[in-house]
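Q: I have 264 residues here and want to know how they pack in 3D. Can you give me a structure?
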Amino acid sequence: MRASFLGCPVDLLTMAETVELARNAMRTRRRLQHVALNVAKFINMRSDPMLAADVANSDVVSIDGMGILWGARALGLPATSRVTGVDLLIELLAVCAQNGFKPYFLGATPAVLRQAMEHACERHPSLVFAGLHDGYFKRDQETEVVRDIQSSGADCLFIGMPTPRKERFLAAHRDDLGVPFIMGVGGGFDILAGAVQRAPIKIQKLGLEWLYRIYQEPGRMWWRYARTNTLFAGILAPAVMRQALRRSLGALGTVPSGTSRIGG
């Protein structure tokens, strides 16, 4: 089910439903691009047209961040759970191992990439990789990277490059890659490699992963979260107030025309 959250498309799917869509794309080799939406991405979309276009043109836009989940619920959307990018990556690697699909890893440093692949293969001994390439290639090397992905026969491509580089790469080469399932994983390779630790499960359930990230990397992360969370609250709060007003007017039978869209 696709909905609009403050003008941004979101798909209200469970993890199982998302995994099945990816599995079907790989089985039929029909291209499906997945994007995980969190607060930082939502805010950056407003000043980055290429990022906004990448999200809008994606086939599946999952709710990754707890802030997005809470916001969607506050605006009346029937969002039940998150589909976090790193959890989806882990689930799909298991699917690849079970079904003989071959993943391709693109991004991160050579050392992190190699370690992520080795850890994935330790967890799933039957897993066979189509290929991998670090994210530190120059613009004039893109054709070579695309050619390597094309010839690899990959069933899924996981990209761990920062925004907006990932979006620029996909905008230029998406139609030439020949890979049925494409997904950005953010810092997923670092987590898979063990270079970055995820927050404990209890902290994840409380929606405080961002606080744990600040604890891990205070110099780099505190300003990012302070900025994006503040801007997000400034956008969400008026929308929630408008939603409450519409409901109140609706109860009185005086809803103004043109005010039925959720999160407008």
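Q: Anything worth noting?
A: DSSP finds twelve helices and eight strands in the chain. The chain has a mean pLDDT of 90.
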